[in-house]
Specification:
about 15% strand, 4 helices, single chain, alpha+beta, two-stranded antiparallel ribbon, Beta-Lactamase, globular
């Protein structure tokens, strides 16, 4: 969910197979370098995330993460909007891939993201694969329960 300092983990379901990532409830996610952060950056008003995104790139770019130009960021956010979920491959943790799907309310505001992650060796990172498809469907079901009516798909 969106917190005072950005996208913040509010619930964590532990996997059956151990996954070596350092996530805890209360962790604030990077806007530029995580699937969760990119989802919020893609769907929130630019004025809300502009300064945080700039600080995020300045703080993390070059310190274990590649520096990203504004055009690269916008391309990733456009990709998120196009596919209806965000994706990271080996970022910010090498060997770990992730998807994050949006949950909207009745006024089309993003209220939370649902993130799935796993080791690259077994995680299906295809946009319409065995992880992305049910994740997207789950988020849509929750959105509908909150009164969200998805826009019709253009032919």
């Amino acid at each position: 969910m969106w917190g005072n300092f950005g996208p913040t983990i509010v619930r964590l379901e532990e996997p059956t197979q151990p996954l070596h990532v350092n996530l805890r409830t209360g962790t604030v996610m990077s806007l530029a370098y995580t699937a969760t952060g990119r989802l919020f950056a893609a769907y929130m008003a630019p004025k809300v995330i502009e300064k945080m995104m700039s600080e995020d790139i300045s703080r993390l770019g070059g310190r274990g993460q590649p520096h990203m130009a504004p055009q690269q960021i916008e391309q990733l956010l456009s990709e998120t909007r196009m596919h209806g979920l965000s994706r990271t491959i080996g970022q910010p943790i090498p060997g770990i891939d992730a998807f994050c799907a949006p949950v909207f309310d009745s006024t089309n505001n993003l209220v939370l993201g649902i993130t799935a992650m796993g080791p690259e060796a077994t995680f299906d990172r295809e946009w319409n694969g065995k992880v992305a498809t049910p994740l997207r469907a789950c988020a849509l079901e929750i959105s509908r329960s909150l009164g969200h009516v998805p826009a019709p798909i253009a032919a």
